[in-house]
Amino acid sequence: MKSIKLIFSRLWFYISSNVFIFCMFAIGCIVCSISFLFFYGNGMQTKRFAGDGGNTVGFRTYKLEFSKPVDYDKIINNEIFNSDLIDDVKLVHSLNSEELPKELKDIPSNFLSVCTYLEGKYEIKSSQGRTKFTDEEIKNGENVLIVPGRDEMYNMQIGNEIILSNNKYEIIGIAVPPDEFYMTTKSFASMKYSVKSISIILNTQLSSVENGKYELKLHDEFPSASLTDSPSELYNMAQSNALGDFSFVAVIFVVSSLAFMFLMKFMMDKSSSENVIYSIVGATKVRIVILLLIENAILSFVFAVIASIIHSSLYEVLFKKLNITSDVEYYFSDYLFIIIMTVLLSCLVALPFIISTAKNSIIKNKNKYNE
User: Fold this and answer.
1) Cα dihedral sign for 332, 337, 340, 343?
2) Does pTM top 0.90 for this prediction?
3) What is the pLDDT of residue 369?
């Protein structure tokens, strides 16, 4: 209890005897903590992936490949497709040599495929012509086709006809992918194509935990399929780089904090006469260093809490606009983590200054009292 009173009395001495210096130190620490929050949110892959990754299809796509082709009806009747989470589903059928157009007969079997999007929402990357089907084409299942971006296809014109799987189609576009034809879902179903793989695209990104649960659900629904692509790879990459990312962010905080630690040392030097008194009455240098560290930890904690309150209160109106990564969200756990790390790193940065102050003040004042 006496130690606590002693620590707070010394803190009050810092404030009352050096108001200007203390205010400069406080502002510096708060700015450093806010900067720490900024670089944490924009520099950590785990935060970036949870932010603007949600706007990237790769973070919302789950690709399943079947060991053997599956009937179209068995796929689309699965209950999982009734989920509100699903934005669209891409079905892929591998074409055999008999199904290929005469212009592509020399292509190896199963290299080319025909695809469709159940909802028809996604634009296909196209180098010529249209990138998607019209509502009327989708509704009526018209025989129109976006062909793969191969040299043989570039020799043809938009509006030309091509025969695929013994059925005639009008070319409305040439896709960038060199191995995929695209048609409407009704056309796909009418051809009774089997399905080699599906890509489920969600309308929102799942968290790392939710992603794991969703993958288990997919395995249960499609036990014969292998999950060949999912956000897990990206999450795992972010986790593997987390230590390196945070180390970089921590170094930035440490370097920026060094400038303000000289102000802290100045205030501690002002109370150096108290340190010699503690030494005279029996306090060891280690105990004095611990006392100074606790003082620094308390100040760092208070300033980090103030910085977190300012950041969270003004995030939508100010700090969110300063982000270099879009849609970064901060949660209570993030602020708590930053507060803890701020205290620990501040103590680490202050330790050399504290040891120097404790050593110099004791030697200087002992010599003064011995004169």
Assistant:
1) negative
2) no
3) 47
